[in-house]
UniProtKB/TrEMBL annotation:
Catalytic activity: 1D-myo-inositol 1,4-bisphosphate + H2O = 1D-myo-inositol 4-phosphate + phosphate; adenosine 3',5'-bisphosphate + H2O = AMP + phosphate; adenosine 2',5'-bisphosphate + H2O = AMP + phosphate; 3'-phosphoadenylyl sulfate + H2O = adenosine 5'-phosphosulfate + phosphate
CDD domains linked to this entry: PAP_phosphatase (cd01517)
Family the entry assigns: Belongs to the inositol monophosphatase superfamily.
One Pfam assignment: Inositol_P
Function: Converts adenosine 3'-phosphate 5'-phosphosulfate (PAPS) to adenosine 5'-phosphosulfate (APS) and 3'(2')-phosphoadenosine 5'-phosphate (PAP) to AMP.
SUPFAM superfamilies reported for this sequence: Carbohydrate phosphatase
Name of the featured protein: 3'(2'),5'-bisphosphate nucleotidase
Gene that encodes it: LOC110681994
Highest taxon above the source species: Eukaryota
Pathway: Signal transduction; phosphatidylinositol signaling pathway
EC top class named in words: hydrolase
Signal peptide limits: none
Length: 383
């Protein structure tokens, strides 16, 4: 359903059926039921194991990060030995655990820079990290990976994804800038089936188990979020605890809704989000944290809204949102572009979207879409 709002056609995404809120009969419910009859239990176990092991590697590196561990990619963004190591570990675990299935992985990193002259020491550091991490998992009795084996594991993430078949989608460290700063980051792994996200796992080693803003006595950190289509979202400790079901904030009152955005000002327009928050009457200041840890925190109701408005021309990648989006939708939330259109993960590595990405519960969405459109129009008029 669409409603006209100014010149833009806004999709009232809040009535588009999700598995939790499906109408009695529609093409969507038929589609959903055919997906929900499938079991992804084996894939879920493998994904949780892969993300948890990769998190171990990242935690070890973050504790004693060396200057030489951080490099710059061609686009000037940072990459570390932990990004590469995490990608190799996830790729190894998935292939090992799911060896009977065809394997396709769309992942952020590739081995190009590690094959350059002068990268041998960095590659050796990654090789040792990867082998130590795999050896720490007692169920694997495999011989250590060679440098070529590590490069091959990283490069098995070269798939383009798409609308046909199954594809894993991996961000080995989402929020590398946060990781380097010692702040939040996430290992984000999702599974696409026929272009749709059907499973997502987010390992957030620095996220407190207690809600943000609430001091727990133990102050334990390290959360693992997991979601399967139609089965809800669960959170457990990365150290191992029973998963608990989580839900997005139920608030209908936008004045009491706090919102998340990037820590990095270059990743999202803070001006736009501030104008939107003002229109909604939001009283709390923005909660700025790195990575898809924002989706995890939103899924358990720590805040009620996520706003992300990259600069014009920036193209969002599927690995930055696939796992986070299902973690939020299975917790009862909605994730869409700034016009209310659902995110389409079936088009390869990139997401085509209007202005940005937003998330909140169903009740807040109409007011949020209206505030966004008004703020965008005001900004355009002031230029
Ligand atoms: N100019 C830009 N605008 C929006 N996102 C950007 C960006 N430059 C990089 N990013 C993405 O923002 C991600 C981090 O998101 P956040 O701001 O929520 O922490 C990065 O993931 P990586 O750290 O995996 O490269 C990167 O993909
Ligand atoms: Mg990156
Ligand atoms: Mg990322
Ligand atoms: Mg990354």
């Amino acid at each position: 359903m669409y409603i006209g709002l100014s010149s833009l056609r806004i999709r009232t995404h809040f009535v588009i059926p999700t598995l939790n809120h499906k109408p009695k009969s529609s093409i969507f419910s038929l589609l959903n039921s055919s997906f929900s009859s499938m079991s992804y239990q084996k894939e879920l176990v493998a994904a949780k194991k892969a993300a948890s092991l990769a998190a171990k590697l990242c935690q070890k590196v973050q504790k004693s990060l060396l200057q030489s561990d951080v490099q710059s990619k061609l686009d000037k963004s940072p990459v570390t030995v932990a990004d590469y190591g995490s990608q190799a570990v996830v790729s190894f675990v998935l292939e090992h655990e799911l060896s009977a299935e065809p394997f396709s992985l769309v992942a952020e990193e590739d081995s190009g820079d590690l094959r350059e002259d002068g990268a041998q020491d960095t590659l050796e550091r990654i090789r040792v990290l990867v082998n130590d991490t795999i050896a720490s998992e007692s169920t694997y009795s495999v011989s250590p990976l060679s440098a070529d084996g590590v490069l091959a594991a990283i490069d098995s993430g070269r798939s383009e994804g798409g609308a046909v078949g199954r594809h894993w989608v991996l961000d080995p460290i989402d929020g590398t800038k946060g990781f380097v700063r010692g702040d939040q980051y996430a290992i984000a792994l999702a599974l696409l089936d026929q272009g749709r996200v059907v499973l997502g796992v987010l390992a957030c080693p620095n996220l407190p188990l207690a809600p943000l803003g609430v001091q727990s006595s133990a102050g334990q950190t390290g959360c693992l979020f997991s979601a399967v289509l139609g089965e809800g979202t669960y959170m457990e400790s990365l150290d191992g605890s029973s998963p608990v079901k989580v839900n997005v904030s139920p608030t209908e009152n936008s004045e009491e809704a706090s919102f998340f955005e990037s820590y990095e000002a270059a990743h999202s327009s803070f001006d736009l989000s501030s104008s939107i928050a003002k229109k909604l009457g939001v009283k709390a200041p923005p909660v700025r944290i790195d990575s898809q840890a924002k989706y995890g925190a939103l899924s358990r109701g720590d805040g009620a809204i996520y706003l992300r408005f990259p600069k014009a021309g920036y193209r969002e990648k599927i690995w930055d949102h696939a796992a986070g989006s299902i973690v939020v939708t299975e917790a009862g939330g909605i994730v869409s572009d700034a016009a209310g259109n659902p995110l389409d993960f079936s088009k390869g590595k990139y997401l085509d979207l209007y202005k940005g990405i937003i998330a909140c519960n169903q009740k807040l969405m109409p007011a949020l879409l209206k505030a966004i459109q008004q703020s965008i129009e005001e900004k355009a008029a002031s230029l």
